[in-house]
């Protein structure tokens, strides 16, 4: 497994973001309406404003290669972007579009991806990271809580979100 910093316009990033948005739209709670797809602005996910990462690895499941010959394929992604803050404040970065392809789940890679994003936010001057998510994403909520994220009031008007989190970076 390896993490590759790239752009959101990279073909692998576009493929993974397409899967992410399709999955979110398919699983979006109907009582909340229709999921709104908003592809990330490429200028917001490049240093010093942010980063975008593609996780690459072998397609494995329970320790076995699922499809021999499919090594070093795009298996996940995520990014951070700087939020607008007054000049005298330490910047806060927002975690966005964390996604793992289904065969890549349950192997600890989401935690590795999140750690990389948090480390990069810190290297860009952040004292904290925030994120929004939907209550229907139970696995995501568990991941964030395990990683020390705390529930906070809404910091944006994302119509897809029902929960907001923050983590101070030590």
Poorly predicted regions: none
- Widest sheet: strand order? 1-2-5-6-7-9-8
Shape: globular
Total of DSSP H or I helical runs spanning 4+ residues:
3
Name of the CATH homologous superfamily: Gcn5-related N-acetyltransferase (GNAT)
Main structural class: alpha+beta
The CATH class assignment is: Alpha Beta
Please indicate the count of domains.
1
- DSSP, total strands: 9
Strand content: 25-35%
- The amount of helix comes to 10-25%
The fold-level CATH name is Aminopeptidase
CATH architecture: 3-Layer(aba) Sandwich
One letter per element, helices H and strands E, the order comes to: EHEEEEEHEHEE
Q: What is the radius of gyration?
A: 16 Å
How far apart lie the N and C ends?
A: 26 Å
- Major sheet attributes: 7 strands, mixed
Average pLDDT reading: 91
Brief overview:
The protein is an alpha+beta fold.
Polypeptide structure, described:
It is a single chain. By secondary structure, the chain is α+β, with helices and mostly antiparallel strands. It is 24% helix and 30% strand. The chain is built from three helices and nine strands. Strand 6, helix 2 and strand 7 (128-133) form a beta-alpha-beta unit.
């Amino acid at each position: 497994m390896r993490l590759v910093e790239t752009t959101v316009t990279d073909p692998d990033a576009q493929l993974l973001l397409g899967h992410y948005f399709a999955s979110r739209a398919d699983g979006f709670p109907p009582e909340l309406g229709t999921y709104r797809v908003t592809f990330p602005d490429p200028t917001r996910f490049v240093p010093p404003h942010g980063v975008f990462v593609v996780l690459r690895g072998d397609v494995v499941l329970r320790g076995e290669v699922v499809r021999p010959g499919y090594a070093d394929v795009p298996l996940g992604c995520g990014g951070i972007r700087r939020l607008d803050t007054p000049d005298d404040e330490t910047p806060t970065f927002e975690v966005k579009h964390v996604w793992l392809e289904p065969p890549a789940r349950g192997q600890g890679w989401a935690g590795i991806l999140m750690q990389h994003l948090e480390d990069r936010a810190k290297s860009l001057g952040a004292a904290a990271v925030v994120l929004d998510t939907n209550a229907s994403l139970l696995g995501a909520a568990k991941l964030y809580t395990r990683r020390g994220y705390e529930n906070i009031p809404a910091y944006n008007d994302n119509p897809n979100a029902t929960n907001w989190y923050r983590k101070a970076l030590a």
